[in-house]
Amino acid sequence: MDPRPTVLLLNFNADEREMYREGLESGGFNVIVALDAKHALTLAHAHHPDALVTRILQPRGPFDGLELTRRIKQDAELKTTRVIITSSLQEIGYAQAASAAGCDDNLFLPSVAEEVADAVWRAITHQPHHAEKEIQVERLGDL
Q1: Does residue 6 contact residue 46 with C-beta atoms inside 8 Å?
Q2: Reading across the β-sheet that carries 82-87, which strands appear in turn?
Q3: Looking at residues 25-40, what average pLDDT do you find?
Q4: Residue 116, Cα to own-chain centre: how many angstroms?
Q5: I need a surface site. Which of 89, 103, 107, 122 has the fewest CB within 10 A?
Q6: What is the mean pLDDT of residues 11-24?
Q7: What is the mean pLDDT of residues 43-49?
Q8: CB atoms within 10 A of CB 25
Q9: What long-range pairs does 116-119 form, CB within 8 A, spacing at least 24?
Q10: Residues whose CB falls within 8 Å of the CB of residue 24, separated by 6 or more in sequence, listed in order
Q11: What's the predicted TM-score (pTM) here?
């Protein structure tokens, strides 16, 4: 059995998918690749990944990354899976929808592989986002 944390990667864009897969693997993760949301859900049940990295938009269907997130977070076996959404949709409504669906982090595209790997590590180790750390450091400096 592979001791590395497992990441389920769902991305319809082949170039992004390969870039993220390579970045996650070099970041210390075991990566499982899904080609659509239904396949991702099947793989999640089979492998119980530590994290899922998905785009909001999934043109291959049958549902998008937000619905996949909801299904994972509502599933008793999978609800502890950390979810990182990547999206080119930078409107506040999408970030709020991702949060409401149960996403642990939301990265705007273009995201480099290192950002994705860092977001996964933060999510699985329950560390705050970099911006939240800066706020915490500022508050400590005020004491």
Answers
A1: no
A2: 30-34, 6-10, 51-55, 82-87, 105-108
A3: 94
A4: 8
A5: 89
A6: 91
A7: 97
A8: 15
A9: 116/20, 116/23, 116/24, 116/53, 116/84, 116/86, 117/23, 117/24, 117/26, 117/27, 117/28, 117/29, 118/27, 119/53, 119/84
A10: 7, 9, 31, 53, 113, 116, 117, 120
A11: 0.83
Q: Which fold has domain 6-142?
A: Rossmann fold (3.40.50)
Q: Do residues 110 and 104 lie in contact, with contact meaning Cβ atoms separated by under 8 Å?
A: no
With CA atoms as reference, report the closest residue to 82 among 67, 90, 92, 72: 72
3-state secondary structure of 131: helix
Supply 21's token pair.
Answer: 């897969």
Q: How far is CA 95 from the centre of its chain?
A: 13
- Residue 33 token pair: 């690749």
User: First vs last Cα of the chain: how many Å apart?
Assistant: 47
- For residue 54, what are the β-bridge partners? 10, 85
Please give the structure tokens belonging to residue 116. Answer: 């994705």
Query: How far, in Å, CA of 66 to CA of 73, rounded?
Result: 10
CA distance 52 to 34: 10
